Prior knowledge:
The chain is α/β, with parallel strands linked by helices and 411 residues long. It folds into three domains: 2-47 and 187-261 and 359-403, FAD/NAD(P)-binding domain (3-Layer(bba) Sandwich), CATH 3.50.50; 97-179, Orthogonal Bundle (protoporphyrinogen ix oxidase, domain 3), CATH 1.10.3110; 262-355, Polyamine Oxidase, Chain A, domain 2, CATH 3.90.660.10. The chain has ten helices and 18 strands. The protein has a seven-stranded mixed β-sheet with strand order 6-5-14-15-16-13-17, sandwiched between helices. Strand 1, helix 1 and strand 2 (25-30) form a beta-alpha-beta unit. The chain is globular, with a radius of gyration of 22 Å.
Amino acid sequence: MTFHVVGAGVAGLAGALLLAKAGHRVTVHEATPTPGGRARALPDGTDNGTHALLGANRVALRFLAAIGARDAWIEPEPHGLPMLDFADHSARRVALSPVGWIRGAQRPEGLTFGGLLALMRLSLPGTDRSVAAAFAAHPALLRSLVEPMTVAALNTPADEASARLLGIVLRRLAVPGAARLFVASRGLGPDLVAPALATLACHGATLRIGARLRGIEQRDGRATALDFGEDRIGLQPEDEVLLAVPPWEAARLLPAVPTPEHHAPILNLHFAHATDGPVRFIGLLGGLAQWVLVRPGGVAVTVSAADTSVGLSDEAAVVRIWPEVREAALRFGLPGEWPVAPPSARAVREKRATPRHGLLARPRPARRPLANLALAGDWTLPDLPATIEAAVRSGETAAAVLMSAPLPKEP
Length: 411
């Protein structure tokens, strides 16, 4: 009996690990030269984007512990998130946890009693509306806290994003410690993908690189063969398939499966700028960039919900973003030289980074569209934002379905 996992993104890796740890024979097939999916490391060692986890992402953190990588994810800003507002060039720290808002200095701008009630109402069930509409009476709070949270969690502009889905995020943040922010200290390659692959290898799993699935042969509601072009793998009656691919690939392979049709882009910029200081994470308001992750080896910048900026040329993106990074570094006293002239940089564009998390309900595909095949991927969980957490959950859920086993308990 063999479990074939198609796709070595986070969902595929999480599902494969659950299967391999249960003692099953597992083969992972990955189309690209580099495993990791949207959380992959690039050939030059940098990440394709700035990925962060929160304490609320308990399943993702448990997965990191299972692959021996939990300690590599550190809390860069334990005393509050540094925020630079380009409207008035003010620099302050904002507490991510509501408990920290008791201290006025770390309270989000515009957090009045009415704004607090609006946040509480957002977490209650009700008719959906856009996040911007839900906070129309609290524009300062929308700008300083709610909109940055929306684009970070949902990758969708606030005037389009679902308030119901953001409410789910807020409910998860209500637990003590849930708002703690963690980032990979070295990068996603060494701190997520590489340890996952090493752990899979220790459990006997096989990885096939450059194996793009061209088609799935079917008969009587079952997958009978996996067509990889020159390589065709016939499936035995007891074999199972975990399909962990992007929605457009799932639609190509299984046209009857409903998939999201609208996606939102992310623009990432990586500056070759070495620093001597610790890992830092800074938020920006009112500029083009939104998040700045500073590691000793370089600076990564993210623009989420990047509908208007993903089309910028590399040069235009560098010219606009580096001054924002430099001002943030100087205002918060980051060590090292921060010259006016921008260093060399590389832009990474994910034009279909996530499904759009708008008011229209995303389709919910059947977890097992074929008798011996289960779907995984963050897009298969429409009640959660498409994040690393959702990817891990979906992979483990698909693996448990194939094994007819209960899911691991959350810590």
